[in-house]
Amino acid sequence: MPHLPAILEEIAAEMAAAPERGRPADYIPELAAVDPNQFAISVALADGQQFSAGDAATKFSIQSVSKVFTLAIALGRLGDQLWTRVGREPSGLAFNSILQLEHEQGRPRNPFINAGAIVVTDAILAGHAPRELLGELLRFIRTAAEDDDIHINESVARSESETGHRNMALAHFMRAHGNLLNPPEMSLGAYFHQCAVEMTTAQLARAGRFLVNAPGLPHLVSATRVRRINALMMTCGHYDGSGDFAYRVGLPGKSGVGGGILVIAPGRASIAVWSPGLNAQGNSKLGTEAVELLARRTGWSVFG
Ligand code: GLU
Predict the structure, then answer these.
(1) Are residues 12 and 72 in the same domain?
(2) Is residue 252 part of a domain?
(3) What is the pTM of this model?
């Protein structure tokens, strides 16, 4: 794709000039302090080439993008048994909603809403100390990215532990329904720390290559699992904005409230984009606009 570097520079310039940038998440105090004027985009191609534009060397909090990695680990460990505890349907509700959970007896709709991700983390914790699980998660991400300089930001984890009352409510509610096997504080501690992993878009794009399913790229999970994770990203990766993201971008993606999005062009590329300002559904506003432009200009939509 000879034009890719130029396309990325163009998109970064357009995003730098955007008048409306959305608002950074403010329910996690450490995230509220991030400068909303930043933007970065990186693309790791199946043939090994990589291109970036904007603030691609700045680390950001990957937050819910971490759920893609924990899901991959959980499927590797538990296989289809995982689905007895969490569903595979879009929720149509906010990332932290408790509403559906009561109607559906504590079994979350999918592994990407917060309740579902807490269950996934709880499932892979079983029998391990949170520290061991976080070590395994970091090893997985570092191997995928071929980069050891990827860490957890303790201040962000602490900031969320001190204020994450909705997630605590979700965890306790699921425990009451027998769908959380470890003490809620333990699963939540691991969950808050996994969300506090920090990466640059360049690192995240490289880490996402294990979901591209192309020869020569890291094969950390089977091709079948990759297809399934991509399907879940397409249908559930943007909370109640998942339909809109599929409509506008046409690629599977997973967003995080830190303003990052990991997007996969199956067989072609892994894309990471970051801008801290969020839209009404809690997904990066400019990040979504940027990948919409990228998908249009490269013709990478899976819908042709
Ligand atoms: N740590 C965040 C929370 O649980 C993740 C949400 C997100 O990134 O969408 O509220």
Answers:
(1) no
(2) yes
(3) 0.97
